Amino acid sequence: MNTTKVIAISGASGAGKTTMVKALSAKFNCPFLLFDDYVDEDTYPTDMKKWFKSGADVSTIKTPKLVKALRELIAANKRPFIFIEEPFGRERACVSCFIDDVILLDLPMEICLSRLITRHIDHPGSEPLNSIAGYLVKYQDHLRDIYIECVNQVRRNCDLIIDGNNSVEFIVGSIGNCLKSEAKENYE
After folding, report:
1. Any idea where the AAA+ ATPase domain is (predicted)?
2. Number of domains within the chain
């Protein structure tokens, strides 16, 4: 019987999910999957603003390659955890059955936005200024509201909320203590 637990790290874009998943994976010497590695042109609804206004059903966000990779990793894994970057926690039907615990990285939206802008500056596309300007127009128009709604959906159904304003080391230590404590309770 496979006792591997799948731990989803959730939060808004820019909350630090990728950094946290990689740091936790290193701490526990466990495998990880990153949501963005499985995003393609069919992942998100074509008109995100319309999607948001019609209820923001995150189950319409499709990542079949991520689900396949997770299923295969669970079957083959012998480590205690698999860490997965899943911005939507358990809210997407296609992954909810695989996730044991959801940890929400809670961070003010202005800090997330600052991190996203920094990311665009540090890793520019073909037209960095247009990319940032275009993103900010969408952010003001609808993306900010989408991020808030998605985080609130996760917040209602997560297992742990972590203040993302702390250092990576502090957050990894806090999550590590919770996971060790939970594992100890399960075996006593």
Report:
1. 3-127
2. 1
DSSP letter (8 states) at residue 80: S
User: What are the C-alpha distances in Å from 21 to residues 18, 28, 121, 129, 145?
Assistant: 5, 11, 23, 29, 25
> Domain containing 78: what range?
5-187
Amino acid in position 32: F
Residue that wins the pLDDT comparison between 121 and 182: 121
Burial class (CB in 10 A: 0-12, 13-18, 19+), 159: middle
- CATH number of the domain bearing residue 38: 3.40.50.300
CB-CB contact of 30 with 81 (8 Å): yes
Report the C-alpha gap between 82 and 88 in whole angstroms: 17
Query: 3-state DSSP call for residue 139?
Result: helix
Residues 73-111 pLDDT 10s: 999 999 999 999 999 999 999 999 999 999 999 999 999
The model's pTM is 0.92
Query: Residue 88 and residue 93: Cα distance in Å, rounded?
Result: 10
